[in-house]
Design a protein that fits this description.
It comes from Polaribacter pectinis. The chain is an all-alpha fold and 142 residues long. The protein contains 5 helices and no strands.
């Protein structure tokens, strides 16, 4: 009975492994383009929860990404499934996408810092004429 139990466990573990490699689609998206698409899809999925200029939330930006790269969701899904079955290639694609997104984030952070400093300068410049006017009003009232 104990041996039968071990045999079932062994067969179960053996059947759990899958080495399924999907066929290469005819219209496979190249790795570098796939990385760019994944970057844009990550940004689009994150932007869904942020209000846009029209103060709308929950806008689905995914179709815009597909239109930008002139693909449809079926082609992306077929290519994505193929690359997922090749773990090393997919890991390279995701690593490249992550690195490029981090570079973009650094650029946006620098740009925001520059814009914030310009905004502070413009506020100071706007306040200085008001201070001069206040001083003039005070001097006239005395």
């Amino acid at each position: 009975m104990k041996n039968l139990h071990y045999i079932f466990v062994f067969i179960f573990l053996l059947s759990c492994t899958s080495n399924t490699i999907f066929e290469k689609p005819k219209d496979l998206i190249p790795k570098d383009t796939m990385s760019l698409i994944i970057q844009e899809l990550m940004i689009a999925s994150s932007a869904k929860f942020i209000k846009n200029k029209s103060l709308e939330k929950n806008v689905n930006y995914m179709p815009f990404v597909y239109d930008n790269f002139k693909i449809d969701s079926l082609r992306f899904d077929a290519s994505n499934t193929y690359y997922i079955s090749k773990v090393d290639a997919y890991e390279d694609i995701l690593t490249d996408a992550k690195n490029n997104l981090e570079k973009r984030k650094e650029q946006v952070t620098k740009l925001k810092g520059t814009q914030d400093s310009l905004r502070r300068d413009s506020i100071k410049k706007a306040k200085s004429p008001l201070k001069k006017l206040d001083k003039e009003v005070d001097s006239l009232s005395n």
